[in-house]
Amino acid sequence: MAVRIKFDDKEKERLLRMTVYERECYKMGYKLVAGVDEVGRGPLAGPVVAAAVILEEGVLIPGVNDSKKLSEEKREYLCDEIKAKALCCSIGMVDEKAIDEVNILNATYLAMKKALEGLTYKPEYILLDAVTLKDIDIPQKGIIKGDSLSLSIAAASIIAKVYRDRLMTGYDEIYPNFSFGKHKGYGTSEHIECIKKYGLLPIHRRSFTRKFQG
Fold first, then answer.
1. I need a surface site. Which of 4, 11, 48, 208 has the fewest CB within 10 A?
2. Is the pLDDT of residue 212 over 90?
3. CA 212 remoteness from chain centre
4. What is the pLDDT of residues 36-71, one digit of tens each?
């Protein structure tokens, strides 16, 4: 993929600012610091996906930022870069049926826990985007706008976003009338019209979509 990202002094400075929370952890003696983020809380269809990423101290990956601030092309490129340079990373996913059963907030927490449990190395400290997790015996910190302020959380946001987008795009072959590759399951006007016209699919979240059925 022909993506070029500068690693000049300005970019290095930006990345160093994004390691403030990680460096605080290192100073406290924690070496295995995991960043955790999720994607897919709002869509009408498909799973909520979380990712956990542990970067070694001193590792900077040019271009890494909140996944929402990046183009699809850059996210795809950076996903591969993160996987190559991270100490380890993992995905946790909770499907639409479980979302309907436990609600989206609890499903999000569950996806994050699954991502953490899937890491090759057990983290010594966890940095999360905005939330904290209950029943976790590891020190943690929730950071408001963490996907813009923490390099490891931003890396997790990219891994989660790319994974979920690829998954939703794959549904185009199964459900060609719904154009999941375009809206990724979010409640666009086109998606809502498809629900009204064709009805709900097995991957739709019933707790999110009943009101759109005509």
1. 4
2. no
3. 27
4. 999 999 999 999 999 999 999 999 999 999 999 999
Domains of the chain by residue range: 9-212
β-bridge partners, 126: 34, 140
Q: Following CA atoms 162, 175, 185, 152 in sequence, which dihedral angle do they give, to the nearest 10 degrees?
A: -10
Number of separate helices (H) and strands (E) present in the chain:
10, 5
151-174 helix and 72-85 helix, angle to the nearest 10 degrees: 120
Task: Assign domain 9-212 to a CATH class.
Answer: alpha beta
d(CA 189, CA 195): 10
Given the structure tokens 């459900």, which residue do they identify?
A: 175
Q: Are strands 125-129 and 48-54 parallel, antiparallel or unpaired?
A: unpaired
Dihedrals φ, ψ of 25, to 5°? -65, -45
- What Rg value do the Cα atoms of the chain yield, rounded? 18
| CA–CA separation, 138 and 17 (whole Å) | 25
DSSP state of 195: H
pTM: 0.95
Token pair, residue 43, equals 């869509």
Instruction: Please check whether residue 95 is in contact with residue 110, taking contact to mean a CB–CB distance below 8 angstroms.
Output: no
**Look-up of token digits 């002094």:** 9
And the tokens for 143? 């950071």
